[in-house]
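Appendix B. Raw example, untouched.
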Amino acid sequence: METTKYYCRDIFSLSNQEIIALVNFVYDDANLDRLAHCLYAERPSLTSTITYRKIEVLSSYYEFAYVVKVSFGLTSSDRIVTSGFMVCMEGSPGDETLYERDVCLGSVKDFYRPYEGIVWETGIADNFGIELDYSIFTVYHKKLNNFLSSTLKIWNGHLPDQMYSFNPQLKSLYEKHGMPSFIVEEVREPEIAAQ
């Protein structure tokens, strides 16, 4: 029986619109409810309406990963709440081992924890200013795989990697004199309702 080898798309080729789509997927209604539950002690409310959202991408200090940070203004809170997750891949940008490469989403704090006090100073993850980390959310594997396959087209058996050009803003994150972060989107009501 013949097997198909799949190309895995480089995470630094995602467009800003695709990053927005990824944020919309992760922060679905169920996970926004989980976020609101985390704020219950501050202001008792089990639901929240988003009044403001800013999506930023930050350098992870590694050339195989970056941090997606999302800031929310919610009706249940009088302040801006920050959340986020790490986007990682096996191998470095432009690595020729396309068949072995894979991608993952994960917790920023958990990514750095094993290296604290060894490679990085203790509390390195706090530098990203992420209050409610990816670890509080529920992301189902089949839904995530379907989203990555169909919407972001991360894997494709017949797609040359060169078809995707690098996103210059993402690529700049790990260049010597590149920018440490950039804003992908910043919206307020009523623009949020229109999405």
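End of appendix B.
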